[in-house]
């Protein structure tokens, strides 16, 4: 079945009549939702929204962790031609108010009492007239029954199907109709609402997973925030292809979820793959574990071409390495994953090679919110490590004179909500300016080297791409999140938020006393340890790229403290501003050290 709108996906999903379309965890067990029940819940929700006066073009917000109700609310809105506006649960009340007001949302679906309290603190500042709470809460006196209901009430009291009128409305939605406004996570500035149509997303879904086989018994864990277009696109695509989705609302539940659900597909941002790598390195400490681990990785390295070609090596040494080491790493991800995909940020060639060394081929892809999102993706058929794959067949990509990647095609967004000037700056003759620097090789594989705005220009006029260097640093398990600095300075340096659990283990083993993270990063032996790590990276850098100073910080870089985006990308400008004084001091000390 071909699709031109997201409503086509809903109709296809309900007709498939799956017994386990979705899974959610409740009261100690995984409970299924069939496609028939999913259709009923969506229909009940859509009819309630219609009764509230929600019509084509009206905006409806969703403020929730990943759970079936997220997708149910989303599909209900789309069937009516309403426009969904996802909000990250990690946003502050002030940030949430900005998004709600900028988009003009009238109704909001939210998950928990915590999110409800956040909304109530800003409710008078918004246009919200109806609130739907996904959890079964005892609603307080401050909310009237006409203003706030639970999703259980809607589903319990709703009808079994859409009915003739609403089904006609749903089928009348066209590819050009606006489906969603997705606010970018703001790595480089103020958050903007990207307008994506039904056709934008549907055209991308039609091509994004070509080359991947689905056997009909596939299962995937939905844990990347659905507010991010990558996760939402993926869930739509998997629903369309009949893959069971198991919802994991919180990242700290992911390890247990993987062991319980045992997915056959694993799609994650690079930061998750980095953490799995760091965990494997952490567990391989001491004799004889380290010796066996290093031997196995060396064996795997010799068979890397076979892994990257999608083949299982047959040598006895590889089989033994797989039994002793590689299978243990896969077991941590459930033990059944056949397809590994990475997106949302650059994976880094060295990390991709490590995974290939342990028998895992990761299909790295690339895209942006404004392109719905996939632009290119490695597949089992066309795979080249170090690239983000071949460009999707229904879009065009060209490289501008300054190296910027430009995209044209049906998945390119309509523009930014209420931002005509920024829309004109981003779209030139229908070509979207991605802001990324890259190149296309002779075989058509796209490589992305860095963000254009992230490029560091030293005072000597040399340009440094920070992401490849940062990815190399992150391959050392002791490094949590690095940030290359040095724009308009004489030389480049690096700020590092350590992997504190592993650093604490190292400190205890090496009898380094500490009572806090601040103690650790101030210790001369710890500083020397990280300087040695950085010096190892410097050996492979050009002279002007070498990192001449190391700034260790006592803070972990997280989404909660604003250092990372919800898709776990570094907010470079935020971090630089937060540590401005330490950075200035570092360069001042370096300058003083050179004065005779």
The average pLDDT is 94
- CATH superfamily membership of the largest domain, which one? ANL, N-terminal domain
Assign an overall shape: globular
Number of helices: 22
Multimeric status of the protein: single chain
Could you name the ranges where pLDDT drops below 50 across 5 or more consecutive residues? Answer: none
Question: Main sheet?
Answer: 5 strands, parallel
Q: What is the CATH level 1 assignment of the largest domain?
A: Alpha Beta
**β-strand amount:** 15-25%
**Estimated structural class:** alpha/beta
Q: What is the helical fraction, as a range of percent?
A: 25-40%
Explain how this protein is built:
The chain is of the alpha/beta class. It has 3 domains: 6-173 and 209-260, Rossmann fold (3-Layer(aba) Sandwich); 265-335 and 338-395 and 438-452, no CATH class; 455-594, ANL, C-terminal domain (GMP Synthetase, Chain A, domain 3). The chain is 40% helix and 21% strand. The protein has 22 helices and 27 strands. The strands form 7 sheets. It has a 5-stranded parallel beta sheet, sandwiched between helices. The chain is globular, with a radius of gyration of 25 Å.
Key features?
five-stranded mixed beta sheet; 3 domains; 22 helices; alpha/beta; 40% helix; Rossmann fold; 596 residues; GMP Synthetase, Chain A, domain 3; five-stranded parallel beta sheet
